[in-house]
Amino acid sequence: MPFAITQTCCTDASCVAACPVNCIHPTPDEPDFGTTDMLFVDPRTCIDCGACADACPVDAVFPAETLSGPYPEINAAYYADEPLAPVSGPTFHRWGQPAFDRVLPAGFPVLDVAVVGTGPAGMYAVQDLLLHTPARVTVYDRLTEPGGLIRFGVAPDHPSTKKIGEAFARHHGHERVRMRLGVEVGRDVTVEDLAARHDAVIYAVGASESRSLGIPGEERTLPGPTVVGWYNGHPEVPAGAVDLSGERAVVVGNGNVALDIARILTTDPADLADTSIPRAVQERLRTGSVREVVLLARRGPESAAYTRSELLAVTSSLVVDDADPRVGKTIDSAAPGEHAALLQGVRRERIDWSAPVGVERRIVLRFHSAPEEVTESAVRTADADIPTGLVVRAIGHRGRPLPGLPFADGIVPNEKGRVSPGTYVVGWIKRGSTGGIGANRTDAAETVGALIADATAGTLAPRRRGSLLRRSLLRR
Ligand code: NAP
């Protein structure tokens, strides 16, 4: 009986490397890898060895026979149009040529590298450095608790996804790693300090700012990262940061962050009791009044930003607002496999926004509906005023400029991770706020590859020991 990959897949491809018969795709060197939400086991060639399940850092792989949901079918469907080619060996997928592109020449001096940020991008970079080089790595984070978005971003009702933090935490104690927590670049040390102290610095500082809507009343909205930080117990977000006194909340955007927020706000608080949600937040959810969350999307269901696996996690509480006739048509005419087809079978309703919010907890998907203004008591759209006291903008993120580094369009401009020889970026500050956790693995490999190429070419500036860093740390 084959194995199948399920909802929590982080696409970091640990399973691909472990599979002895190359039956998990897309692999990092296949074109679909950059866009897929999850990886898939080919049931025709899986030999049932379970190596993928052992290697998976987020508990996403199970024997298909033990699963009752749609995932065995979803895995198989990926291969539906893929004929079994007449090649020798147990699989039809050919292995590519192995590439050994991240190797320092024998006898190369040990590098001293700084990684700024302990989220997934930073920790995949640390892992890559430890695996491919003898480098010593100093890891900085402005917070005293490591983990970045694994700790303070992944929703607390996704414990399997959070488990990848355990794999990263093993590197914290590695003999070649030094952790420097509670040290903020720009406040406690400067970019110049770090450049002087280390042979190379990799910035994995993420994209912590919410994009803005540019509409009247925007100041009344809460940034998505604030709400995400709130339910994750971020030290800078108080338990009272989110007002749950109204019965309806509106979230602008329909990406996975919007869906995470909607799911947490509409789940029965009793079902969240065993999660890592802080007690004070659980209590606010228990005593709060929110029962309906409306996700406002400016485009149609064919362009929805949520992924299939995140949508499948909430289908029982979903309703599609039927006000715009294009919505139903697009859903009904979608071919299997098309994004809009995910909503086939989901209840549709013409919603009367002047009626009281129902008793049932639910998430309403409203398409072709951009907010035009946020007033004290409603979100104004082209065809309706939606009464609400809580408006969240989950419309993507931007990086925060770091003095001493270039900055444009919400990221640090770079070429394959290289800002300049000796200075590198990885993760959302490198590529913008797209991609889940696993996308950072190949991203980190590219950045570390650029670093190694510069070291080998001799273009890294010599470091100045006894540096400014120590003096500036002493100033704290
Ligand atoms: P996102 O996926 O980029 O979604 C942003 C949403 O905001 C889109 O619906 C977008 O609509 C909308 N939007 C942007 N500007 C807007 C505007 N001015 N007015 C109205 N709507 C606007 O961002 P995200 O949800 O923050 O997620 C970021 C990344 O993290 C994604 O790759 C996501 O998959 C990943 N993530 C994954 C998980 C998970 O796997 N469980 C959880 C959280 C996040 P348009 O499409 O029309 O631009």
Low-confidence stretches: 86-91, 466-472
Architecture of the largest domain, CATH level 2?
3-Layer(bba) Sandwich
Strand order of the largest sheet: 10-19-11-12-15-13-14
- What is the general shape? globular
Category by helix and strand content: alpha/beta
The Rg value, from CA coordinates, equals: 24 Å
> So what's the CATH class of the largest domain?
Alpha Beta
- How much helicity do the residues have? 25-40%
Mean pLDDT: 93
How many DSSP E strands?
A: 22
CATH topology of the largest domain: FAD/NAD(P)-binding domain
Q: Main sheet, how many strands, which sense, barrel?
A: 7 strands, parallel
Strand content: 15-25%
Hetero compounds: NADP nicotinamide-adenine-dinucleotide phosphate
Number of helices: 16
Count of discrete domains:
3
Structure, described:
With 476 residues, this protein is α/β, with parallel strands linked by helices. 27% of the residues lie in helices and 16% in strands. The protein has 16 helices and 22 strands. The protein has helices spanning 14-18, 51-55, 71-77, 120-132, 148-152, 159-162, 164-172, 191-197, 224-231, 256-266, 279-287, 308-312, 325-333, 428-431, 439-457, 468-474, and strands at residues 3-5, 24-25, 40-41, 61-63, 112-116, 136-141, 177-181, 200-203, 209-210, 222-223, 248-252, 292-296, 318-321, 348-349, 362-366, 373-374, 378-380, 385-387, 390-393, 397-398, 418-420, 423-425. A seven-stranded parallel β-sheet has the order 10-19-11-12-15-13-14. β5, α4 and β6 form a beta-alpha-beta unit. α4 packs across α15 (439-457) and α9 (224-231) packs across α10 (256-266). It is globular and about 75 Å long. Mean pLDDT is 93; it is low at 86-91 and 466-472. It binds NADP nicotinamide-adenine-dinucleotide phosphate. The site of NADP nicotinamide-adenine-dinucleotide phosphate (NAP) has 26 residues, from α10.
